[in-house]
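Worked example (supplementary).
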Amino acid sequence: MNHAFLILKRWMALLACAGILSFAGSRIEAADEAAKTPAAETAATTAATPAAGDAGHAAANVPGHGHGGEAKHVSFAEQFGYSYLTAYMFCLSLCMGSLFLVIVHHLFDAGWSASIRRVTEQLSSLLFPWMLVLLIPILVLQKQIYPWLSLDPAQDHSLAVKVVLFNPTAFNLFLIALVGSWGAIAHSFRRWSLAQDKDGKVEWTRKSRVLAAAGIFYFAFSLTLGCFYLMKSLQHQFFSTMYGVYYFAGSVWTTLATVYVLIMVLSRPGMPLEKVVFKRQQQDVGVLFFAFTVFYAYIHFSQYFLIWNAAMPEETFWYVRREYGSWKWVGFTILFGHFFIPFLLMLNQDIKRKLFLMFPMAAWAWLMHYVDMTFNVMPVLHPEGLHVSILDPLLWFGMTGFLAVMFWRNFNSAAPYPLRDPRFAEAVTHHEIPAAGGAASHH
Amino acid sequence: MSAKPTKTYGLLAEFDTAAAIMHAAIECRDAGFKKWDVYTPFPIHGMDDAMGVKKSLVGWFTFAGGFTGFFTGMGMIWFMNKFDYPLVVGGKPLFTPLYAFPVSYELTILMGSFGTLIGMFLLNRLPKLYNPLFKNERFKRATDDRFFVCIEAADPKFSQARETLEKAGAQVIETVED
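After joint prediction of all chains, the assembly is encoded as:
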């Protein structure tokens, strides 16, 4: 009875949150519609509507021509929507990145990561309900965010050929289904892991392994589709089969930075992971972090290089816009800040265990990933150059802060590590030899 | 046959378990020997730490190789396409790091691996065609079922070698002649 009441209470809280967000969204939308002068509306439509066919692509290729030339009126709802989307994509990265780490742990039947798996399980479990709830404002403001939703496929060739996926029904249904299904997968792993804490049965591990094997394929395809809808469709004319893996690479990179900091903080004396996180976990998470630095650069370079080399207007316009004005410098920031600096800094093996370098590095990774998301999202709204609104930090800190609180609540609601995982002993027994030097040999 | 005066190469101690050799290595490390080595039929996890072996310097050779490779690639393509024989291809600039990158990247890896290999040979002082230990009959079992420590006579603390090895519980201790 008590339990049922608790569940009911949670669902009501959830619905209330959804209701408030939805209401806030609709108010913003209404206020925005009212505030829009006819002139501003025309300007906005012109900027957001590339003409069909080659002529449209040619026009889209000239920055400042129909895009950034005259400063475009940006409404509050649009700015809110874009800032919100940027923050959302950032937070989704952390959830999907940790879901990937959980899947990979089971897929490889890994031993070393068993002791830190609960952290990633709890992080990825934020997908449901929170990432689904946080999706609502995007759905509410979809017309303000995605220009293609206001276009007629009959008038826009590039939309017409993609209309199977790019139509309002598919957009809404797929987004809800995708985030919901990710949440379901994340919660299955977490639920089975918690069940194993109680009975210690190996079946839970076996089940997780099966889900991981199927899940990795679903993960790859669904994350790509999710990125196409949420971010790539901002410029629906764009083509890039690498777009999904590009977002994925950045996501896992940021997640590993986050996991690194979390496990190092949570294993301080008196903290819950004190006795289960060793040099090995620290080194291995650090190595993966470093590896994904390279992987991200490899993927982003490949995307850019292929588009640059082929020089086809229907692809180049995406980067042309991102090389216009100050966006060019944002691009260089990503090149150096997302790759060269972290790469050279973490190249040396020992660096991965030096907290005074790795902690700032992790914070830097957060910033860089946010810059990367901005680079993907914002040039559509602000073609004239980088434009930071107060809403950007506000929504970013708001959303990450809220999710951090939710994570901490979840984390404290269960054991901090999988107590009876069959591979747990492997993670915590290790070949550690007394360190060189006289003092250590007295142990 | 050989009229050459023999000179002592070092002291060879034999152990019969991996645990014993690990313990012996820690003893030797803490006794402060410099010129000594451990010989085992298979790799033993943690032996590096037990011997107090510092991190290998091979990484620096790799880095130097990779660095050279990267700039060789960039330089080569700049020289060929922009300087020596300028040729417009596909309306692209004569030189940009962008299209030179894949080749430079491959050369980074190639030269990086050469650097690794050369560094490994140099630091291991390879190739080495002769080692006095090869003459020792017992030492043949180092590739089968015995574990050895050899402290070289050139070690400044060689006078304490026998005592340390005995303390470490060596089964047999032999002097190896050069």
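Two points are worth noting when inspecting this output. The beta strands of chain B are 8-15, 36-39, 147-152, 172-177. The longest helix of chain B spans residues 58-84.
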